[in-house]
Amino acid sequence: MRCTEPALRTPEGVRRLAKAWRRYKPPGSEPALRTPEGVRRLACLAGVLLCAGCSQTPAPPVAAPPAATAPPVASTAQPPAAPPAQAQRPPAAPPPWRHARDWDDYRHQAALRILALNPDGTYTGPVHQPALAIPVLEVELNRDGSVRRIQVLRRPGQATDTVQLAIDAVQRAAPFGAVGHLPRPWRFTETFLFDNQRRFKPRTLDL
């Protein structure tokens, strides 16, 4: 409760108190202030008037409880599937080896065999200009055409990893045809023309 104005401190309050007392006092009775009972009644009446001058402050409205929110639902989106790995082409069957007439014929047949047994690392179209790298290998053979030794005659200034790519390609194509009927030394050279995708073409096939 909050009192807006004390009742007995204003003329209006005094008039209300006197009027109430005259209405309350029975006729012919002795003055109220001369007896203890009258004093108690007057004090009680004054308390009633004091309460009349007070106003109640309305209670603050009760805040409504917040609406329940649904728990977040975990996303069920699946991650994008990884692209399938590109399958490597199986090597084509190399052309049958013919009895080589000379070393030029032997080198041409060896280039065709290297190309056929390395399908994912070779090309047959026009040579890319300028070539990415041009390593040159010398392949020394045993009598039966197996590889005895590979020597690097020219190492490119860039993309030096193409040297090992060329060596691996020769080893995959081995063994070659027998060389016992050809003059010594039993060896041939090959130049590997690499493009920007690190695929090569034997230069012998462009001659």
TrEMBL record:
Residues 65-90 have a biased composition (Low complexity). This is TonB C-terminal domain-containing protein. It comes from the Bacteria. Residues 59-100 are annotated as: Disordered.
